Amino acid sequence: MRWRMTPPACSRSPSGWSMNSAYGCCAPPRRGRTAAVVRRSTPCGFPPTSTTSPTRSAGCLPCCRISHEERGMKTCLEWARMLELRQISSVQLTEYFLERIAQLDRHYGAYRLVTADLALAQARAADEAIQAGIRLGPLQGVPYAVKDLFDVAGLPTSAGCDLLAGSPVSASAAVVDLLQASGMVLLGKTNLVQFAHGSLGVNLNQGTPRNPWSAVHRVAGGSSSGSSVAVATGMAPIALGTDTGGSIRVPAALCGTIGLKTTYGRISRSGVYPLSPTLDSVGVIGIAAEDVAVLLRLLSPENADPPATEPFRLRGLRLAVADSLFEDVDDEVAEAVLRAAARLEALGATVTHIAFPQAEQAELINPNGVISKVEGYTYNQALLASGSAWLDQKVVASFDSGATATATAYYAALGSMAALQPQAVAAMEAFDALLAPATATTAVALDDVSRSATAYTDANSRYSSCTRSVNVLGLCALSVPCGLSSQELPIGLQIIGRPGHDERILSIGRALMADYYPGGIPRPPMSHDTRVVAPHLT
Question: What's the CATH number of domain 76-530, 3.40.640.10, 3.20.20.80, 3.90.1300.10, 3.40.50.1580?
Answer without folding.
Answer: 3.90.1300.10
